[in-house]
Amino acid sequence: ETGVTQTPRHLVMGMTNKKSLKCEQHLGHNAMYWYKQSAKKPLELMFVYSLEERVENNSVPSRFSPECPNSSHLFLHLHTLQPEDSALYLCASSQDWLAGETQYFGPGTRLLVL
Amino acid sequence: DAKTTQPPSMDCAEGRAANLPCNHSTISGNEYVYWYRQIHSQGPQYIIHGLKNNETNEMASLIITEDRKSSTLILPHATLRDTAVYYCIVRVRTGGFKTIFGAGTRLFVKA
Predict the structure, then answer these.
(1) Measuring CA to CA, which residue among A49, A76, A53, A74 is closest to residue A63?
(2) Residues of A with Cβ-Cβ distance to B34 under 8 angstroms
(3) Which of A6, A35, A83, A99 could pair with A90 as two cysteines, CB 3.0-4.6 Å apart?
(4) What pLDDT does A57 receive?
(5) B42 → chain A, closest CA residue
(6) Cβ–Cβ of A104/B99 closer than 8 Å?
């Protein structure tokens, strides 16, 4: 029981589609994160939100647009994606935005872009 | 954050102890050692962390050398469900978050 849920668990979309990934944490944490995990590659940190403000953006293309309406919810809006964007997208949360805080991960959304 | 070096893969017999090494020779005094694991197609799971002293919890033990340049994660009685990729990460506990997950060690627990 991680307390972090993600929907959908699987998503197939065309390059012209617009879709959104949703993450919800039930742990009362103040920080939330988006990671990308491509096949046979390490986890890549995409975005960090602390108290609903974006504090980290690791040179992610603009076709990925995060949104954090409150400290419990995090979205990743997708539009005009490329096939190389196919990956496992993981959401995580931690109590605060401190480097040493333990992160709790959701199960991920497996995205396939055709 | 300091870089870490881990073997790409290891095997372990079910019921035996799994000892996963990690080198972090450039670790600084205020950096902690964290271990996570990722079972296939799931999100990473926190295991344990430590600074200087050895640590133990219900999942594992963490042994950190006196010079802090390396550490070992010990799963005392490995089960088939412990088959996963294990990540060793070192980072400070202040300032912004820039965790870098490396390739990790793929542990295969065999019956």
Answers:
(1) A76
(2) 100, 102
(3) A35
(4) 73
(5) A107
(6) no
